[in-house]
């Protein structure tokens, strides 16, 4: 019985963590090293994540500085950034790559808010599906005689509280992201 609650709680936490990770990769007009998490750089005949071949720093709110560990990779890093979905224009001086993060247009902001709402809704659906799975598992345990009706009822209520808390967290994360997207 408690393993059902524990398993459901772990799955809900993973859903929330996944939403946070997804939101971290959003380009909001503010510099962030997380923007570059999905960029892979061609180096030594293999593709490596950018953060494993270079140091990424944010010296100012709208500036990213990327310093390759190996200077010969500077062209490949620049190429990987240009070909990414980020629509950024890197420039290099032979030692480091500088990227000015342009402010977002009003239209792009509204688009990002829609995407964020969609991702948050997918997370809420996932949380509710986890609750459903947990309730089905509890009913199965009740049918097998492994738990009493009282235990099933208590666990079901606990599962609902977990669901409400998790959906509250999803909504809070969405609100914070929307504020960040909409700030000029």
Please outline what is shown here:
The protein has 184 residues and is of the alpha+beta class. Helix content is 59%, strand content 15%. The protein has five helices and six strands; from the N terminus they run H-E-E-H-E-E-H-E-E-H-H.
Give an account of the 3D structure:
This protein has 184 residues and is an alpha+beta fold. Helices cover 59% and strands 15% of the residues. It contains five helices and six strands. The chain has helices spanning 2-24, 50-53, 74-82, 106-144, 149-182, and strands spanning 40-43, 46-49, 54-60, 63-68, 91-92, 97-100. The strands form two sheets. The chain has a four-stranded antiparallel beta sheet. The chain has a two-stranded antiparallel sheet with strand order 1-2. Strand 1 (40-43) and strand 2 form a beta hairpin. Helix 1 packs antiparallel against helix 4 and helix 1 (2-24) runs parallel beside helix 5 (149-182). The relative contact order is 0.17.
Q: What keyword list fits this structure?
A:
184 residues; alpha+beta; 4-stranded antiparallel sheet; 5 helices; 15% strand
Identify the overall geometry: elongated
Order of helices and strands: HEEHEEHEEHH
Number of helices: 5
**Taking all residues together, what is the mean pLDDT?**
89
Record the strand order, biggest sheet. 3-4-6-5
Number of DSSP-assigned strands: 6
Radius of gyration: 22 Å
Low-confidence stretches: none
Instruction: Find the structural class using helix and strand composition.
Output: alpha+beta
Instruction: Kindly estimate the percentage of residues that lie in beta strands according to DSSP.
Output: 5-15%
């Amino acid at each position: 019985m408690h393993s059902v609650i524990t398993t459901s709680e772990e799955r809900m936490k993973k859903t929330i963590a996944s939403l946070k990770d997804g939101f971290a990769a959003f380009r909001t007009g503010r510099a962030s090293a997380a923007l570059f998490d999905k960029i892979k750089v061609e180096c030594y005949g293999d593709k490596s994540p950018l953060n494993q071949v270079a140091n990424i720093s944010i010296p100012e709110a709208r500036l990213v500085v990327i310093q390759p560990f190996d200077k010969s990779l500077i062209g490949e890093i620049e190429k990987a950034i240009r070909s990414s979905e980020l629509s950024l224009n890197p420039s290099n001086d032979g030692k480091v790559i500088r990227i000015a993060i342009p402010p977002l247009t009003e239209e792009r902001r509204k688009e990002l808010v829609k995407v964020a709402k969609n991702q948050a809704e997918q997370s809420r659906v996932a949380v509710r599906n986890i609750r459903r799975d947990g309730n089905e598992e509890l009913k199965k345990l009740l049918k097998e005689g492994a738990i009493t009706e009282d235990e099933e009822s208590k666990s079901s209520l606990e599962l609902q509280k977990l669901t409400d808390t998790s959906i509250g967290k999803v909504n809070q994360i969405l609100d914070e992201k929307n504020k960040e997207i909409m700030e000029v």
